Every structure is written in structure tokens, then in C-alpha cells.
Amino acid sequence: MSTFNDFHKFSRLSILLLSLAGALASTACVPLAVGGAMVGGGLMATDRRTSGTQVEDEGIEYKAGARVREQLGDRVHVNINSYNRLVLITGETRTEADRLKLEQIVAGVENVSHVLNETAVTFLSSYTSRSTDVLIAAKVKASLVDAPDLISNAFYVVVERGAVFIMGRVTEREAARAVNIARGVSGVSKVVRAVEIISEEELARLVPPQKPATDAAK
InterPro entries annotated for this entry (predicted)? Predict the structure, then answer.
């Protein structure tokens, strides 16, 4: 009979394997990457956004990516992630003008409520660097899975040049705990909160209480 611990170990291994596959696939990507070193989407069983907001976030990422490709092309390497209409942009641009243009493009997309522009004006990152970021993201996500006091699926993890960006709709307690965990992962240079803070009361409404486990042998 499978146990919770078995499932827990399987989930952790699945995160690492999927992220490794993403790292290998990224070597064939064009300079603009939408989604970036992000872990959690395919494994999510729950989401604190409404279904309509999830669709809007997907539309924001798609439209923003298409417009950036059209207007800036391979002059930039950026990752665009939207959560509850808050858009995080990470990556690199070659000039400050392109960095400002990038933010303007994304802010002009329908349904965007706020843009957090964390891009750097520097050389575009190498494929090796991007693969390393994917592996760091996998380790951070796995560490969140290991934390018994957190619901790991509540967090989106984005990594760029060793910097970890944590997204999600979480309480202050959850955010602080996740940041602490991420800081302890090897390879992490800094941790940035890109979260929407909700109250413990709202969390209780979003997450129904767990039913006590029943003994199958009875």
C-alpha cells in the first residue's frame, strides 16, 4: 500500500526530473523565453486564483511574449510570468531603452494590473546559466514540498541568474517561511518576494479543512 511519504518522495522526484528535462530543452530555445525557469505549473493540483483569472494570466503571458518578440526580437532575453494579473519580467536587455520599452509593452497588455520589471541591462545569459537556473528552481520547489507547514502548490518559483522570485497568493506567514527556505538552497544569490498577501481568514476560506485519514483496514 502506498503511503503519504511515498507520494511525497515521488512528487519531489517528479519536480526534479521535469525540471531537468526543461533545462535540456531550453538549449534549443530562442533568446526570448516565456515562462522561464518556473516550476509548478504542470504539477499543480490546486490554485488560489479563480479559473477565469488563470485563463487571463495565460493570455497575458502569450500576448506579452508575442508583442515583445515582434518589437524587440533577439535584442532581449526575458521571462514573462503572470500570477493574478501581476506580471513579473526577468531576464536581460542590452540597453536601458530596451528595458523601459519592454516594461511599456507588457504594461499595455489587456488585464495587466501591475508590472514588476526585474530585468537587468547586461549581456544576454548563456544557455548554461539558464539551465543552472532551472535546476535551482527545482531545488527550491522540492524544498517547499518538503516543508510540512506549507502548501507548496501555492507558490510559483522563478529563477534568473541565481535570483529566486517567489509568486503566489499567500499569507505573510507563508511568504516569510518560503523566503527562508529559498535562502537556504545552494546556488541562490538572493530571494525576491513577488507575492500578493492575503489574510489567514481568507486562506481558511480558500483551503477547506483536511478530513481525518481513515483506516482502510477497518
Answer: BON_dom (IPR007055), Lipoprotein_DolP (IPR051686), Transpt-assoc_nodulatn_dom_bac (IPR014004)
Domain residue spans of the chain: 4-203
The phi, psi pair for 156, rounded to 5°, reads: -105, 135
φ/ψ of 213, rounded to 5, equals: -65, 140
CA distance 209 to 200: 13
167 grid coordinates: 509568486
- Taking the C-alpha atoms of residue 165 and residue 115, their distance in angstroms, rounded to an integer, is 14
Place of cell 516543508: 147
Helix (H) or strand (E) holding 70: helix 51-72
**Per-residue pLDDT tens for 132-178?**
999 999 999 999 999 999 999 999 999 999 999 999 999 999 999 99
At 85, which amino acid appears?
Answer: R
Q: Please give the DSSP secondary-structure letter assigned to residue 122.
A: S
